[in-house]
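Hi again,

Forgot to attach this to my earlier email, sorry! This is the prediction with threonylcarbamoyladenylate bound. I've pasted everything inline since the attachment limit keeps bouncing my files.
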Amino acid sequence: MVVKAMETEVLYVKDLNANYQNIVKGAEYLKKGEVVAIPTETVYGLAADAFNENAVKKIFKVKGRPQDNPLLVHIYKLEQVYDICKDIHKDAEKVFDAFWPGSVTLIFNKKDCISDTVSAGMKTVGVRFPKSEVARAIIKESGTLLVAPSANLSGKPSTTSAEHCYNDLNGKIPCILDGGPCSIGLESTIIDMSTPDPVLLRPGAISLDDIRKVIPNLVYKKNLLSVKGNEIPKAPGMKYRHYAPDAPVTLVKGDYAKTSKWIKENANEENAVICFQEFLKDFKNYEHVYSLGSFKTLNAAAQKTFDLLRECDKLNISHIYVQAPKDSGLGNSIINRLEKASAGDVINI
Ligand code: TXA
Ligand code: MG
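Structure tokens for the complex follow:
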């Protein structure tokens, strides 16, 4: 018997009002216990009904995600955090006021309604209240709350467009909701608020400096974010090689003029080079050169990082060299992703 591959329907939802019927269609799949790729302002999510165990299990299967890696629960109104979490931190309201809805995910102790499948056996759950109105409308229409990890296959760069989702998930899920390219392009910043001093678990869309203005006692230990050997990670997802394109990545950090010079001296002209717009002129003879936009504002770099790593996957190349941004603001989050993509192949100049 020939098993027919699932047809993946791509439905356009960029305009909340004009495309509302497609939001309803996507929500119908979710109500039936199916997995649907949905847009958010950070990256696309692979969504399912948080309270349907079979649907939740499908996410792990589709992504190839290890069972010990918990899922974030996405809500569409603030009160819902109290439905699924307990022991809410005394400073939480300040954080809600400053960042919600928005690209900060908060971790609290979970109530029993959140299953061990969702939390991967942890006592806590991560709650994400997206800024994207389309994302919130999808959750609302589904009539439930949605678990959603990033919509990439495990280990691959996160997906920031419907095309990326299609490349990873075509034939594996019934529906992709296409909201256009994600406006931020990096995943949410994750803060663990289940301990007296909140801990930054993942730098992300909202910069550390902005978070510190609201949580001055935020604990940020860089070595917490990369886990070696048998250590138990705070956020289980951190122990896996991540964001990796097929070709090996070398990340080059330091003064911009010097890193550009280093790449020029070390890369072959057939290798891919990802650098800031100001240095494109150094790589005129190179076949595959991609711009991260200007280093003066890193918004474009954030939006393009995953997309460019994925572009490189379309080429038959043996190596990717990336010029690192400065390690502050969004640059800190971009470097975090690129360090993982490079599996530690980092040159400091
Ligand atoms: O921007 C985002 O956060 C996107 C969009 C789709 O909302 N979602 C996302 O999910 O990036 P995911 O699963 O790819 O990354 C969530 C990270 C993982 O590293 C996971 O291990 C960690 O958060 N995490 C989830 N629940 C946790 C918990 N209860 N305690 C500690 N870490 C947790
Ligand atoms: Mg992810």
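Residues 162 and 178 are 5 Å apart (CA to CA). The chain has a mean pLDDT of 94.

That should be everything now.

G.
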